[in-house]
Design a protein that fits this description.
Structural class of chain B: mainly alpha
CATH topology of the largest domain in chain A: Rna Polymerase Sigma Factor, Chain: A
Number of helices of chain A: 9
Number of domains of chain A: 2
Structural class of chain A: mainly alpha
Number of strands of chain A: 0
Largest sheet of chain B: none
Radius of gyration of chain A: 19 Å
Order of helices and strands of chain A: HHHHHHHHH
Oligomer: heterodimer
CATH architecture of the largest domain in chain A: Orthogonal Bundle
Shape of chain A: elongated
Order of helices and strands of chain B: HHH
Strand content of chain A: under 5%
Distance between the termini of chain B: 100 Å
CATH superfamily of the largest domain in chain A: RNA polymerase sigma factor, region 2, helix turn helix motif
Number of helices of chain B: 3
């Protein structure tokens, strides 16, 4: 049923048991892949309650579409694809509420010290909130998932041309936002 | 430094972040047990469908009126000439 080269034996057994209604088997799958899904969810929301619900949404959706998993890619890839779509829907809902985050004042560290990863992450997150959901998604997948144009197109069911156009527009818009928010000055990277 | 280069540098730093863990398993299983699936929002689609139906109805009414009462558009150009009785 599943390609043994792509789907782990433990996953295969748990998937089949889950399809048979075994909740414990699905709970094992959640435990195995929750860190991966949660790390992707972190790129979509940093609010703990929203993130927890996001991760739940991914696994609930995965459970109810598990019979559609063909096994031609590892289960983790399939779950991350679902997570990407859940995240895109989440951002579209948020966009209707028009939630943009201002870039907080960063304390530029004295050279040669670097900005803390969490501060850098928060800054990137805040800047990306200024983009429309589709453009934000393309850049997020390129920046944090190392996704190529083809992979994004495959994950989202978009054409490659559409992804390229969105990436181009996203970068242009992001540059304008960074200038407006005085990113370089706040980082102390003006020299 | 260019803003986009700065952004890429920020992203490289941000990738070293360790996101906090979640524990969504029990709640997800409870939702699965309850058969709760977040309903897909179809409101925009239904609104679009309703607007299209209203527009189609208006056009249909206009078309029926035009069909049932055909008027030669040249009629107004040639008003009936009253012929004086001899």
């Amino acid at each position: 049923m599943y390609n043994a080269l792509t789907v782990l034996e433990t996953d295969r057994q748990d998937i089949l048991a889950s399809l048979g209604g075994d909740e414990a088997a699905f709970a094992r799958l959640i435990r195995r892949y929750e860190p991966s899904v949660a790390s992707l969810a972190w790129r979509f929301t940093r609010e703990p309650a929203e993130r927890k619900e996001f991760v739940q949404d991914v696994f609930v959706e995965a459970y109810f579409s598990l019979d559609g998993f063909r096994g031609d890619a590892p289960l983790e890839h399939w779950l991350r694809r679902i997570a990407t779509r859940v995240g895109y829907r989440f951002w579209k809902r948020r966009a209707r509420e028009a939630r943009e985050m201002p870039l907080a004042d960063l304390d530029p560290p004295a050279p040669p010290a670097e900005i803390e990863p969490s501060a850098a992450g928060a800054a990137v997150h805040a800047l990306l909130t200024h983009l429309p959901p589709a453009e934000r998604l393309v850049l997020t997948l390129m920046y944090f998932e190392d996704c190529s144009v083809s992979e994004i197109a495959h994950r989202m069911g978009w054409t490659r041309a559409m992804v390229k156009m969105r990436a181009f527009r996203a970068r242009r818009r992001l540059k304008a936002v960074a200038q407006r928010e005085h990113l370089l000055e706040k980082l102390g990277w003006t020299s | 430094m260019d803003e986009l280069k700065a952004m890429e540098k920020l992203v490289r730093l941000a990738r070293r972040e360790h996101p906090p863990m979640t524990d969504a398993g029990p709640a997800a299983i409870a939702r699965i047990r309850a058969g709760v699936v977040r309903p897909v929002r179809v409101l925009p689609l239904s609104v679009l469908a309703a607007a299209a139906a209203v527009a189609a109805a208006v056009i249909l009414v206009l078309a029926i009126n035009a069909w049932t009462a055909p008027v030669d558009p040249q009629t107004a150009l040639f008003p009936t000439v009253e012929v004086a009785s001899l």
